[in-house]
Amino acid sequence: MGGKPRGIWAWAFYDWANAGFNTLVQTFVFAAYFTAAVAADEATGTAMWGNAMSLAGLCVGLSGPLVGAVADHTGRRKRGSRF
Question: Considering the entire predicted model, what is its pTM?
Answer without folding.
Answer: 0.64
